[in-house]
Amino acid sequence: MPVPTSSSRGRMLAAMPLMLALAVIAGIVAARSIVAAVDAHRWDEKDRWYGPVCGVCRSPLGLATVRCRASHHRQRLANPLIMVVTPVLSGALVVSLPTYWVWPAYAVFAWTMVLLTVVDLDTELIPNRMLGPASVISGVLLVVGWVADTGAGSLLRAVAGAVGYFAAMYLLAVIARGGLGYGDVKLAGLIGLFTGFLGWQSVLAAGFGAFLVGGLVSIVLLALRIRSRKDTIPFGPFMTSTAIVAVLWSTEIAAWYSS
């Protein structure tokens, strides 16, 4: 992963308080949008990307999305978790990325990971109408960020990471014969793009980490009889969570890998 020069690092540190504030505010706005979209998909309604509403009376939700404003109906636990995790990730990217120019791209990527995690847990699906536009928007922003600062990462490696992770997951999906969804395959392409931009270590951490975490969690669920062998366990959340880890700690992963 590219290391900022001393002068650029100094400018980044000077601008960090402002960037953190803006990132958290953007994260809060994105979180409310995620809550609205997740609930609309869960209720099998028309897509909604703003104005989260109560699942009981359909009145607007409060800022924290914990209760509705009209009748104070309590909402599900996923809502406040989204409202906390999304701004935290937005701020963490400010600190971890090599340049602020690629922050918009990685912010959209992180928000997409949060969105798809909850959607997959709810419905065991990764909708194309969510993954497709998110991939295009974040991909365009990544190119723009790279043009502004070509030292931030490698576009060629990003494309190679996307193709490599996609191809590996596609092969596994064919071998598994239904044991792995093609939504996961398409998700792998997006994850490979953003982890590949930062370094091959990030791609490997995201890929192998997903199967490692997924395997361990599956064993625990089976051992505790929370799930049976006949039950399906969504794999997307393991991919999204390890992708976030790989992006946030790409420098540490690279240092560990090279030591």
Q: What attributes characterize this protein structure?
A:
259 residues, mainly alpha, 9 helices, globular
Instruction: Report the helical percentage.
Output: over 70%
Nearest-angstrom radius of gyration? 19 Å
Distance between the termini: 15 Å
Note the overall shape: globular
Give the ordered list of helices and strands: HHHHHHHHH
The major pleated sheet works out as: none
Mean pLDDT across the residues is: 91
Number of E-state strands: 0
Count of helix runs:
9
Structural write-up:
The chain has helices at 6-42, 78-96, 103-123, 128-148, 155-176, 182-198, 200-223, 236-248, 250-258. By secondary structure, the chain is mainly alpha-helical. It is globular and about 50 Å long.
